[in-house]
Amino acid sequence: MVFAASFGLKKSVRIGLTVVSLVAAGGLLSACQNDPDIDITKLAADTDPPDMLYNQGLANLNAGKTGEAQRKFEAVDKQHPFSEYARKSLVMSAFVSYRQGQYPEAIKSSQRYLSLYPQSEEAAYAQYIQGLAYSKQIPTVTQDQKPALKTIEAMQAVIDNYPNSEYVDDAKAKIRFARDQLAGKEMQIGRYYLERKEYLAALTRFRTVVEQYQNTNQIEEALARLVETYYAMGVESEAQTAAAVLGHNYPDSQWYADSYKLLKSGGLEPRENSGSWISRAGKKILGV
Fold it and tell me: Which of 28, 90, 278, 285 has its CA 20 to 30 A from that of 72?
């Protein structure tokens, strides 16, 4: 994202260099000169001022040298762990890891940042990066959907903890996608059982989608599969109710056309039973 890539590059530096005592510095230099095992040149390189390292990291990032940028940000964190630049570098390390596709590292850095600086101005961004890293790991519905659950958890934290941040809208979009994936997983398993005529097992999966994932793109098929499953089980009232709810919510759906045709083949038609769990779920679909 463009706004993410420019994060930190446009912010002004708001902290001055730490003042080091001349006496202490002189003592350190004297000790180094008298110790043949200490490479003074290397020591100087390892203790560059935090603002210098941080700005070098930003410059490298701006130039597309993400690997070098990461090394600079990590150097700030290691060499100046209690500085303002260490805080900034930690969240930038999370972003660079995400940019490089190193999602576990991005998550680790963002979690560390949030544990150390939960009230800072970049906390919302760190939480958002964590959610993005999880969302990038969401697999196809045929695989385990743990990353989808983690995405929802992380992005919900953005919404709940930082409601005024600029990341809320995209956090909601990522949650919708993750919920679609979870519903898709339920449908995939449900179809598997339905094909094998294990109707009760299939019914459980389709019911989960209808009750818990009403606002996903899987809901039409889930209702149609309930019609098919209940009809195959001989539970005509529930099959009719599922078709009625489907037709009421999605009258132009091909799923409804197929369900209607199935019922008509058995001399039935859509008819809602207000006492059915499907009717109650149907009200949620409509937002009643």
Answer: 28
Angle, in degrees to the nearest 10, between helices 168-195 and 199-212: 160
φ, ψ (nearest 5 deg) of residue 64: 85, 10
pLDDT single digits (tens) 118-164: 999 999 999 999 999 999 999 999 999 999 999 999 999 999 999 99
Q: Which two tokens stand for residue 145?
A: 């959907």
Residue 141 to residue 213: CA distance in whole angstroms: 15
Token digits for 60?
Answer: 């490298």
Q: Is the pLDDT of residue 33 over 70?
A: no
Buried/exposed code over 124-139 (b: 16+ C-beta within 10 A; e: otherwise): bbbbbbbbbbbbeebe
Distance CA 221, CA 119 (A): 44
Select from 153, 217, 155 the least CA-distant residue to 184.
Answer: 217
DSSP character string of 273-284 = -TTSHHHHHHHH
Whether residue 242 contacts residue 223, with contact meaning beta carbons closer than 8 Å, is answered with: yes
**Residues in the chain, how many?**
288
**Residue 1 burial (CB count, 10 A):** 11
- List the one residue out of 26, 23, 24, 29 whose CA is nearest residue 43: 29
Q: Which residues contact 237 (CB under 8 A, 6 or more apart)?
A: 271, 273, 276
Instruction: Determine the 3-state secondary structure of 31 from DSSP.
Output: helix
Assigned token pair, 243: 């078709």
Q: Are 51 and 15 in contact (CB under 8 A)?
A: yes
Q: Which of 264, 277, 251, 186 is nearest to 225 (CA)?
A: 186
Determine the Cα–Cα distance for residues 31 and 13; give it in Å rounded to an integer: 33
